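User: Hi! I'm working on a homework problem where we have to compare a predicted structure to a textbook description. Could you give me the structure for the chain below?
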Amino acid sequence: MNVKTEIPVYDINNFREYKTQGLVASRFGHYAKAHAHLHSPHRHSFYHLVFFSQGTGHHHIDFKQFEVKPSSMYFMIPGQVHSWSFASEPDGYIINFSKDYFSNFLSNNTYFHNFSVFSGIADQQVIEVDEDTAAAIVESFEDILKEGAVNGLLRDDLVRSLLLQIFIRAERASGHKIEVTANSYNHTIFRNFQKLIAEHYTTLKLPKEYAALLYITPNHLNALCKDIMGVSAGELIREQVILEAKRLLINLDLSIAEVADKLNFSDHSYFIKFFKKHEGITPEKFRKSNILQHGK
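Assistant: Happy to help. Predicted structure tokens:
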């Protein structure tokens, strides 16, 4: 990717591999050779899962770097920015599925909220599995690929069931406790808070503004954020602003002042101070370091 362009967003319909009702399933080696965009920062409008059986290198998720190695798994949710760099030839499996792929299969439309691997928090979306778990996951991937070659009875439902098995095995291997109370009152509020941040981070910067939209007190919002995520509501808002700033800084056609303006900072010098305070470097230095990592 020419880093002077905006980060591209790929839709599942951009891909021609085995696809049925919003699903793409492929061996990763074939997929990587067919899609050069993997090596440059990009986003998806769909969910994305990769399991490596071989290969080494690095994976950047929302500007955090993770190691690529056999028996490692990577989960992505729509909107996250990522890129790959490989030191040796990779292989394994890749699954892309649309936001509504499970909508007619699961009665609980918040089911994925139970899984830390779909949290959108990069550190929780990269896991390593043991030998037995890897063998079971590989078997499920192979069965999915076999189903893609035939049009058997209830094929799509079987594929969805196999995918759910992979998610559950991965979640168990992650060591994170599945949050069985994800549909509780506080968790519902927290998920709504996350959605509101994603929608209004440029205009609403204070926890009390979000608390008002959620019809709760700022203290209640702060308490549930600390209980669920271990950080304050204000920190979650700032993290979203910083992440979006990084995504904008990738675009060299935008000046630092224009990035600040898009994030609704009235003074670009204040934006520079804000960014440096929370990242330890200036926006310009972040931009230059990103060019060294991804520039062509």
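For your comparison, note the following. The first strand starts at residue 9 and ends at 10. The chain has ten helices and eight strands. Good luck with the assignment!
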